């Protein structure tokens, strides 16, 4: 398709407005995904991620705005364009009466009508998700992890250039989870652009080149994981095991310039630090001078979860 050669990003969403009755689900939502990216879309429950993806795919109508994919406007009848798009939905969507191989073949046939051409693609997809030993199985006989892998094979068998993964690792075992993440990275190195939504921050940090945090139907922040961490004042989190921290020592710690907050529950002191230099010495100095005895002391750098919490006021997970 000639349009794939244009300079436009893989996906450009401009000022998308979507209402459900009086409720605004997408509020002039904008999104650019560059070619070759693994782009992470993060948002708390109800922030509009699924609505955005369904509007992008023309599965939902919207009030106004545009969706362009590889430089072409996406509409419900953009069949040419749809051949270049793959979708791995949040809920496993396969046919129980078809085998693994037949399911993959069916989904591939929606885009690749020629059986001979398809056979090779189906084989590659089976190989890619490691379901060779299960090709004759019905989905009902597969474990949760294998079922997710089948769902992925059905979404990618036609070798799309832009792939949407909507929470592909929910409720899978660690082995399948790693296989799925490796698979997404592999698809990306083969040239596919990926849009990825997940509730798991570590996954997003691991595989996404850029991340958008959305809430209330629009963008809250956009950047690499490091850039996002630079947008908030969250620094390291210091945790100290101590049973005898006096109120006066806690007050001194709270008064330290590095301390954003300090909480003590009688067993553990947790200090959220501001961004900047590591400054454990100041905490240790207060503990020493106040005669506080302590055990385990740990410090961890700010996480994407801290950023998310500060920007949206919500935890990502349910
Ligand atoms: N069919 C619908 N009718 C009415 N309201 C809806 C409908 N679908 C979604 N909504 C509402 O639109 C808002 C955005 O929902 P959406 O499902 O897009 O969010 P989400 O970010 O995908 O959430 P989750 O992480 O839970 O999947 C929510 O307030 C939701 O309740």
From TrEMBL:
<keyword id="KW-0067">ATP-binding</keyword>
<dbReference type="InterPro" id="IPR027417">
    <property type="entry name" value="P-loop_NTPase"/>
</dbReference>
<dbReference type="GO" id="GO:0016887">
    <property type="term" value="F:ATP hydrolysis activity"/>
</dbReference>
<protein>
    <submittedName>
        <fullName>ABC transporter ATP-binding protein</fullName>
    </submittedName>
</protein>
<keyword id="KW-0547">Nucleotide-binding</keyword>
<dbReference type="Pfam" id="PF13732">
    <property type="entry name" value="DrrA1-3_C"/>
</dbReference>
<dbReference type="InterPro" id="IPR003593">
    <property type="entry name" value="AAA+_ATPase"/>
</dbReference>
<dbReference type="InterPro" id="IPR003439">
    <property type="entry name" value="ABC_transporter-like_ATP-bd"/>
</dbReference>
<keyword id="KW-0813">Transport</keyword>
<dbReference type="InterPro" id="IPR025302">
    <property type="entry name" value="DrrA1/2-like_C"/>
</dbReference>
<dbReference type="GO" id="GO:0005524">
    <property type="term" value="F:ATP binding"/>
</dbReference>
<dbReference type="Pfam" id="PF00005">
    <property type="entry name" value="ABC_tran"/>
</dbReference>
<feature type="domain" description="ABC transporter">
    <location>
        <begin position="11"/>
        <end position="241"/>
    </location>
</feature>
